[in-house]
Design a protein that fits this description.
single chain, alpha/beta, seven-stranded mixed sheet, two-stranded antiparallel ribbon, 8 helices, 11 strands
Length: 250
């Protein structure tokens, strides 16, 4: 069986729907390479782990409880963390943060959108790394995590194995960048049927069979197929200079 890239996405009460479904909707359906499982951080097993998104009660039914995701036999390549108001109480739960940190250490890639980077920062795993987050809460929240090298002018930031995206739809731009850095073509998967090694210190590791030209071509194909104008330059950030407000979604 060809190698697959397995993504675990953390979900919680009142996560931001577009943070998850924007990038994952671009990444997962467009090839048989990426797979997605939703992990309920509140540790309720299906069918009791139904989580509501922040907008209009869109329901998501997680595949795994957090306890199940932490088991050694659950293998994965990427941990994905969306944002949303529901992450705010989670950053004060030391046991949960320790568990998320364990998943992060086992992942070859970690991808956050919006205030999902705050949850990651609260684990301490972003200390010493460059990262970004939601512009509307940037000045309010980033001082709480001074160990992180926060970048305000950025649609997304890649530092080591950590990919952090700014607010909401920036996650789609970052998702396409994720494709351009992780996608392996079917023929290269067959020739390199091994998984990407995870680095617990947060460093990037080589993707077996990765070909940059083919991966970039796939990312561009996906952008066209979803009729999305990709901003491939992370410094192309038209929102950083706009007046900001702390009201609205995170």
């Amino acid at each position: 069986m060809p190698t697959q890239h397995r993504i675990l996405a953390l979900v919680f009460q009142d996560f931001e729907a577009l943070d998850l479904f924007g990038p994952m909707g671009a990444i997962v359906p467009q090839s048989d390479y990426y797979t997605l499982k939703l992990v309920n951080v509140h540790n309720l097993g299906a069918p009791y782990g139904l989580e509501s998104s922040i907008k209009n009660g869109i329901g998501t039914l997680p595949n795994l409880s957090l306890a199940e995701a932490l088991k050694e036999e659950e293998q994965f390549d990427t941990v994905f963390i969306p944002g949303g108001f529901g992450m705010m109480p989670l950053v004060h739960d030391p046991i949960l943060l320790q568990q998320i940190a364990q998943l992060v250490d086992r992942a070859a890639n970690v991808f956050t959108v919006c205030t999902g980077s705050m949850l990651l920062a609260a684990t301490g795993r972003l200390d010493g790394r460059k990262a970004t987050t939601n512009k509307r809460l940037y000045d309010e929240i980033t001082p709480k995590y001074p160990g992180v090298q926060w970048q305000k002018r950025a649609r997304w930031v890649q530092d080591g194995k950590f990919l952090t995206a700014s607010g909401v739809t920036a996650g789609i731009d970052a998702g396409l960048a994720f494709l351009s850095n992780t996608f392996v073509s079917p023929e290269d998967r067959k020739a390199n049927p091994t998984i990407q090694r995870a680095d617990a210190n947060g460093n990037a590791t080589a993707v077996p069979g990765f070909n940059k030209e083919r991966a970039l071509g796939h990312a561009r194909f996906v952008a066209i197929s979803i009729e999305y104008q990709w901003h491939p330059d992370p410094a192309d950030d038209p929102f950083v200079d706009l007046p900001q407000s702390s009201s609205g979604s995170t």
